[in-house]
Every structure is written in structure tokens, then in C-alpha cells.
Amino acid sequence: MLSDQQIDAYAREGYVSPVEAFSPEQARGYRDLLESAERSGGGLSADRRRKMHLYLKWVDDIVRHPRVLDAVQDLIGPDILLFHLTCWIKEAHTDAFVSWHQDSTYFGLDPAEHVTAWVALSPSNRESGCVQVVPGSHAGGQQRHAAGGDAGNMLKTGQWLDVPDDARIDLMLLQPGQFSLHHTYLFHNSMPNRSPDRRIGLGISYIPAHCRCDSRQRLSASLVRGVDRHGNFDLDPAPAADFDPQGMRSHEAAMRRWHAARAELIPKANTAT
Q1: How far apart are CA 113 and CA 75, in angstroms?
Q2: With contact defined as beta carbons under 8 Å apart, do 194 and 112 qualify?
Q3: What is the DSSP track for 252-266?
Q4: Are the C-beta atoms of residues 103 and 157 closer than 8 Å to each other?
Q5: Which candidate, 83, 201, 207, 254, has a CA 20 to 30 Å from the CA of 108?
Q6: How far is Cα of residue 43 from the mean position of the Cα atoms in its chain?
Q7: 109 - beta bridge partners?
Q8: Are 134 and 167 contacting, i.e. CB atoms less than 8 angstroms apart?
Q9: Contact 206/76 with Cβ under 8 angstroms?
């Protein structure tokens, strides 16, 4: 899926963008399904915006899309687990932002081979507050984060990194149906949405099956390609349909585990030297 040049750029810069997944028309259809789910549920809670692939069939279709997985396989190999997913929505003309951070900070994954695929369901550009990155910053490994309390920060843990004013910053500009890929150690953020439309994207965390999480709480994950020869996670089932009762139960159980692990991993990361 990725060219040799893109694979080299990922190793050197820590990201690749943009990559084509599906058509703008398909992206519009997925967005309509999301907004229908929001209306039917009276809005989606924070937890319902996480691991949505466990209870929404159309999200499961996206995370298993061949073009997405082909690109991820080029970076981490053929045996792929989906560790986590978050639906990022910035409403039009709002101050919500995401502070500078590394995805690795509170995930507790080893080795650090996690790659995030950020799939756009609406335009993600400078005006709408697209993801910005510091190219090459992944080479420095895990960095210590500070904790803040800004109410507008979509990272509710308040984690942030200090990025120098003169740092080179690239924008990951995406049209609906496109996606970017970035390394777990890459410094990235996003600014407020000043556009007249919502900015909607799925942040999908893929890991090779040999990765493990160092939390005492055992977590679940979804096998989306290849085989799992390691057994480091309990495997979640795919939903049979949107809001399938079994899918809803799987989602609730997975989120209970997620919160229990976070309660351990966040203090551990904040006190690490």
C-alpha cells in the first residue's frame, strides 16, 4: 500500500499523510451514520466515543478497511491488533483543542510500535483544527509530560509537552476519506475549529500482536488482521450489527477494563523519570 518513499518518511519523520482510504461519498455516508447514532442516543457520551468498533458495525468496517490495514501492515507487520479507538469531534466555531503530547504516554505498551491511523470523516485543515506534528520528534523516545487544567483541552488528563516556538511544524491536511499515520512517540496536537463545519475523525490505535501492556489489569483488543500467537490481550468479538446487544456488552466490559488500567497507568507515567 505504501511506497518505499512513504515507509522511509515514516521512519525518518514519524508520520505519513495523506493516504487514501475511501471516497468522499463513502466518508459522507459514514458521517451520516455517526450523526444518526448521536441523535438516536441523545448524543454520544465520552465512553461511547471510545472503542466504537465494538458496538457499531460501520466503525468495525472502517477499522478493518483493506486500504487502512494494508498501510498499517507496511509499518508494523501482518499480525495486527486494534488496541484503542477514539472518535474526535470538534464542533464548529469552538475553542476545543488538543495539547502537544505523545500517544504513548498513558498506553503502557511495549515495544513502542503502536501506530495511530487518523481517518477523516470531514475536512481536517488549518481552519478546522487539523492535527499538527513535529517531524522527527519520535526519535527522542518517551518524554516527560506536564499536567494542566485547561477546560478546552480534549485530553481530559491535561497532559502536555513543551514545544519550542521555533520548532518545525507540519500540518496533516486530510479530505474526507483520507487518513494519516503517525508513530506513538511523535509530538502532535490540534488547534480550535474556526470553520463552519464539525471536524470529525477516528483515531485508531493499531499494534503488532507481539506488543504487551504493562498494566496489571488485563485489557482486551480486536484482532483485525493475521493471527495472534502471543495472547497478551483477550480478543473482542466484532459486532453483528449497530447497537447489537452482545456488542454493547462487549463495549461496556472493555471500557471497564480500560478505566481500571488507566487508573494505574496515568499515575505511573506521571511519576516516571
Answers
A1: 9
A2: no
A3: HHHHHHHHHHHHHHH
A4: no
A5: 201
A6: 20
A7: 213
A8: yes
A9: yes
CB atoms within 10 A of CB 16: 25
Total number of residues shown for the chain: 273
Binned at pLDDT 50, 70 and 90, residue 107 comes out as very high
74-101 pLDDT, tens digit each? 999 999 999 999 999 999 999 999 999 9
Which residues, in sequence order, are CB contacts of 196 under 8 Å at separation 6+? 92, 93
> What does the DSSP 8-state code read for residue 53?
G
Q: Nine-digit cell at 223?
A: 484482532
- Residues 51, 183, 161, 97, Cα dihedral to 10°: -50
CB 157 within 8 A of CB 147: yes
Half-sphere exposure of residue 226, counting CA atoms within 13 Å on the CB side? 19
Collapsing DSSP states into helix, strand and coil, what is residue 118? strand
Q: Which three cell numbers stand for residue 103?
A: 500517544
- Concatenate the DSSP letters of all residues of 167-220 into one string: ---EEE-B-TTEEEEEETT--EEE--B-SSS-EEEEEEEEEETT-EE--SS--E
CA 233, CA 230: separation in Å to the nearest integer?
A: 8
Instruction: Identify the DSSP state of 78.
Output: S
How many angstroms separate the Cα of 229 from the Cα of each of 42, 78, 79, 180, 205?
41, 12, 9, 28, 19
Q: Give yes or no for a contact between 27 and 184, defined as CB atoms under 8 angstroms apart.
A: no
pLDDT at 272: 63
What's the CA gap between 114 and 110, in Å, rounded? Answer: 9
pLDDT in tens, 205-252: 999 999 999 999 999 999 999 999 999 999 999 999 999 999 999 999
Model confidence pLDDT, tens digit, residues 22-74: 999 999 999 999 999 999 877 799 999 999 999 999 999 999 999 999 999 99
Look-up of cell digits 486530510: 174
